[in-house]
Every structure is written in structure tokens, then in C-alpha cells.
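Workshop exercise sheet. Pairs work together: one partner reads the sequence aloud, the other fills in the structure field after running the prediction. Swap roles for the next sheet.
Pair: D.N. / O.F.
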Amino acid sequence: MRVYLDNSATTPVAAEVLEAMLPYFAEEAGNAQSVHSFGQRARAAIEQARRQVADLINAREAEVVFVSGGTEADNLAIRGIAQAHRERGRHIITSQIEHPAVLATCEALERSGFSVTYCAVSHLGLVSVEDVRACIRDDTILISIMQANNETGAIQPIEEIARAVTEARSRGLEHIHFHTDAVQAAGKIPVDVKRMGVDLLSLSAHKIHGPKGVGALYIRKGTRLAKLLYGGRHERDRRAGTENVPGIVGMGRAAEMARAQLSDRMERMGRLRDHFERQVMSRIPNVKINGDPDTKIPFLRRVPNISNLSFQGIEGESLLIALDLKGVAASTGSACASGSLEPSHVLRACKLTEEEVRGSMRFSLSAYTTHEEIDYAVDMLEETIARLRQITPSEPVVRQRVRFRPSSFVL
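Structure field:
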């Protein structure tokens, strides 16, 4: 049996999404900028997809800009604001647990004269609104805090942070903008830009059973943003380059399905994730849930499809490989780069011990994960953990603790 539990990395393309895309690879081959009928049909397909994505996040169609994925969306939001408003200030606020697309962009801006404050998080991986409020300065032009973390699934207090931004604007700091990376939130929990109060929001199609290589950035009407790419006047002059029509059509259909099925997906994935964690905790000793263990929907502080666990006495990389040999795909909380192990910057920020960080694994479900797949994964996990613990040396390997740096990432 093959079980895919790495859906936070990418999801399989839904059959309905593939069906919607196929005509635009061949029969509907027009360039959406062309004035003839072929081009106009491509343009109509893009605008339909724009409506579908806008409906998913409760935005206006004109506020949705299609890009190549979540990374470009984050770059366009952060660099776009930084370049457009640098005369008003050069201070940016973000958190220590952001995706590399945000952290690396902020680090690059630091090298070009910007100042970045990286807010710490609690042991549950949550950003403090008071910490964010305390970091706001007269020269702050952007706050970028993700809606849901890609490793632990922790849901951040976006609405409360937006209120802090509104308060700052009322004191004369009208130049502050608020961006959230919602790549891991969309399709898993409600995403409503009006209720959230954000100025910019990043999305990616391949996290919601759409194709890779396409994403979107919500840009609130009236937000001034510098361009990253120069060329034609595509996407209302926000993003130059010939549109990826099949990908955009696929993202639109995936967004439409995510919106229609959101309640069912939340309930189903949450139930399966909780079943997985209950089985693991009851059958495997010395396991810790990383993130908020309380998964009750009214108080949800973790997306329903992510389970990040630390297994005592286990190296995550060894477990990852052993599970893969059993047909179970997951991801590790540690990364191997240039021959040396770098601990997860997210789990370090959550104040886990070195052993807990290195023994961590992320299991992430999709809308199509089955009960049988979860049970098989638990069986293989129990068997593999027992075997690895038997062969693990009794004396732990001592490694140097790595201090947080924005450039230390888990991909």
C-alpha cells in the first residue's frame, strides 16, 4: 500500500481540475493578450478563474493577481511594498516561523538597507499580538505574518494583528501595510480578506489540489505596490509575462471546489487527523504533539490537516527513509543541507529541545486521504519506531545547538 501524507508540500491534482485544464493545452491555444477569438476565449477563461479565486477569499475580482506560485506572491507583496514605500520608512515586522519565501526576502531587504524585526512565538507556535504591537515604529511600512504555519499548522491571530495595524494608522501611521501568507490556510480553514483586514494575501494552487507553478496575490484596492517584473502590461500592469492559462484555469477550478467543499473538508480532515494522533499516542510511547493539542473547532488554533510529532530517541531523517520504504510518505522537521543537519527554524522558535526537533515528523492530510490509509500509516509507524529504537545507541549524539538565523530554513 502507498500512502501519501505530505500534502502540505503539495497535493495531487483533482480529476475535475485536470479536466478543466486539458483544453487549454491544445484546442484553446490562444494567448490571452491577443484580440482574435482564440485569445479572447483564453482571456474569458482567466477572468472566470479570477472570479473563482476571489470568491474563495471574499475579494473583488480586480484585487486578484495571478503569479507563478506562493513564493512569487510573497516576494511581490514584500518587495513591492518595500520599494513603493521606502520613502516613508524601511522597517518590516515578521515572525521567526515564516516560510522561507518570506524570511529570505526579508533577509535580502536587510542587505539593501531595510530593518527587519523577527517576532518570537510561544511554545505552541503562536505570535503574540502584543509583541507585534510593541514592535511597530514610526518607520514601519509592512507587517507580514502567515495565517497558518506550514510545519505545525498553528493558526495565527490575523484579525487581532489587523486591528493593531488599524490602531497604528489612527495614530498617523497610514503607511503601514499588512500581508499574510495564506498558502497553508486556504482550503483548510475559512479565508476572508474583508473579515481578516489584510492588505495583501498570498495563495498557491498546488496546496488545494490545483497545479504547480501558479498562485495568486490578493492586493486590496488602493494599495500601492512596485512591480517585480517588467515587460507587458499583463495582470492590470501588476505582473508582466504571458499568462499560464492552463494553470490559472486549474487554480480557478481548485478554488471553486475548495470553497464549495470547505466545511466537509475541515470536518473530514480534522476527524482523520485526530484519529491518527489518538492512535499514535496510545500505541507508541514517548511521543509529543508539536502545536496546540486542542483541536476543538470553536477554538481551532491548528489547521485540521497537519500533525507534527516528536518521537523520543528517533532521528527524523532515519524515520522518513524507513517509512518511505514501507510506502508511507511524510516529511521531516529537519533538513539536510550541504552535508550538515540544520534544525527546523520553526520548531526551534517553539522552544523545543534539540532532541525533540531532530526527532520530529510532519504528517499532512488532503481532502482525499482515507481512513484505511491513516490506519496503515499508524501500523507502519508503530512497527518502524519500535525497530529504530532497538538499534538506536543508548547515548545520545551531542550536536551543537544552532541559533536562529533568518537564513536557516526547512524546505
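Discussion prompt: The mean pLDDT is 92. What would you look at next?
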